[in-house]
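S1.2 Input.
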Amino acid sequence: MNLKILLPFRIYFAANDVKRIVAHTLQGSFGILPHRLDCTAALAPGILAYETDAEGEVFLAVDQGVLVKAGQAVLVSVRNAVGGTDLDKLHEAVKREFLTLDEQEKSVRSVLARMESGFIRSLVEFQHG
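S1.3 Output.
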């Protein structure tokens, strides 16, 4: 398989002759072998693993995104990715960078929802007043 990790602003990584890929979704981890049917999956922040003959098993910390397998091409489009050889450091990067950002986004969305409801309430009062 041919694997490409895509970030919003560049191609982060590309590998050919990938023997297997393991990715993490909200429902759990799943594996992809070369003859698997085409598929898509929504990725959760976590560790993506792939294996080649040349490099052996390689791990990448990835943010949430989408994985698409079409034929022998596997495209992983994520907001951010971090490479490394130490799995403990990669797990820490996921917790520190990707999961914290999700909590910040939830907070921002909550504030925006309160602002929207306040605006709508004011608009209704204006119409009836």
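S1.4 Remarks. The helical segments are 87-128.
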